[in-house]
Amino acid sequence: MSRMRVLHTLSRVHSGGVEQRRVLLAQGLGSDLYEHALICQEANGPIPNILRDAGWTIHEIGIAPGILNLRWHARARAIARNFQPDIVHGAVYEGEALACGIGLRMPRIKVIMEETSDPVGRRWTGNALMWAMCVRADACVGVSPKVVGYLRDRLRIPERKVRLINNAVQEVPAPTAARLACLRNLLGIGEGDVIVGSVGRVLDSDKRFSDIIRALPAIRSTRPAVRLLIVGDGPDRAMLESLARDLCVSDAVIFAGYQGAPRDFYHLMNVFVLASAHEAFGLVLVEAMLAGVPVVATEVGGIPFVLDAGKAGILVPPMQPSALAEAVLGLLADLPASNALRDAGLERARADFAAKRYVNEVADLYNNLMR
Predict the structure, then answer these.
(1) Domain ranges of the chain
(2) What is 4-168+354-370's CATH number?
(3) pTM (2 decimals)?
(4) Residues 281, 172: contact at Cβ < 8 Å?
(5) Model confidence band, residue 47 (pLDDT cutoffs 50, 70, 90)
(6) What is the pLDDT of residue 1?
(7) Beta-carbon contacts of residue 302 (< 8 Å; ≥ 6 apart)
């Protein structure tokens, strides 16, 4: 029997959640049954090599001058004609546009649109384009119930096309004591420090690290040993460093920068905080839960679903540093409650966001489309 050919189209391949899920597919979908190729604007970091080692071919076609640029789409179609896929699986706006463009010119191909963002504030033109792309799609995947609601209720995509496939995270072994000691030394974390941490791209309009920094003076007024660890980099780092200086907490904020293996850093944290303004899902929440860290997060997008409506983590209103401070101090003051929340989060992550479940649901979708 010939292998099923799947062509993935993404925006970029760096270290984001979409790319991590492609790693799950590379590891979980056997090469005896599937052949994969991937088109993206650019690829860097460790993930492209992981995919190549699994037998994936990665094609970089350059940054699009516009999502409808004809030459950009022509490069993608030429790759698709050479690969002759059975399925084109597009994710992220640019990747979905490429999948649609390929599908329009190659009508025999099955097309999947995977909506990975919380489209709060998306302009009507963006919604119209997304709807038009979904018209060509054979299946439209939402990565959380919140996103599925957008596809069904806002875009009015037919029920038969819409599919919920929740995000997933591969559980990994905890770092060794020697590794953690090395990280503490590298970051200047003292033995008595209490670490509140957050992980993500430092784009403050989305992740709102600034709200955690603004919460820090109130937290440290009660718990002066608390320090904030931010793992990630991005265009707003200098602004956040300036904010920390203005609030006189710069000595209590540790900027770890971009890390190729960020999951070791969760094990340094006493509390994990995600202060996002909007979030389709929040993979870092599941990563923290799998590391056994109690979680505080804003009640936006798909986050309440991930945290089981507050049973697996504390939910607070967005853009309210005082609420973040109160939640963090509550966990630090009540160890039994903190441990109970940690255990509930770990159970939730293992039961509902396991890699095997995700891979099996994607495989079922592929097979159903090809019947």
Answers:
(1) 4-168+354-370, 177-352
(2) 3.40.50.2000
(3) 0.89
(4) no
(5) very high
(6) 58
(7) 118, 143, 144, 145, 146, 147, 279, 280, 281, 282
